[in-house]
Amino acid sequence: MGIGVDVVDLARFTAALERTPGLLERLFTEAERGRPPRSLAARFAAKEAVAKALGGPPGLSHREAEVRTGEHGRPELHVSGRAAQVAAELGVRRWHLSLSHDGGVAVAYVIAEG
């Protein structure tokens, strides 16, 4: 149904979090907070990639896409709110997510499968 990718510069992302304390609460669910900046950057990239996979519909909130740690440490994507509504309208039945961080960047790939 859709694919999305996003890359985040770790230094810029970390500086933004330090400069704007409320950003953490605005972008991440309670369960996601408390992770190191490189993990948060990868999760932010995943949230952006979800929006791209859904076609960039208006009204999405970053907290509507949550990255959870599944069995064996594998990242799992859970959507709610407007993101879940748009996904259902498109016929998305399953999400695939890959996260990585290295060399000063974090990257996320998201596939919305119908």
UniProtKB/TrEMBL annotation:
Transfers the 4'-phosphopantetheine moiety from coenzyme A to a Ser of acyl-carrier-protein. The keyword Transmembrane helix does not apply. Its EC number is 2.7.8.7. It comes from the Bacteria. GO terms for biological process: fatty acid biosynthetic process. This is Holo-[acyl-carrier-protein] synthase. It holds the Pfam family ACPS.
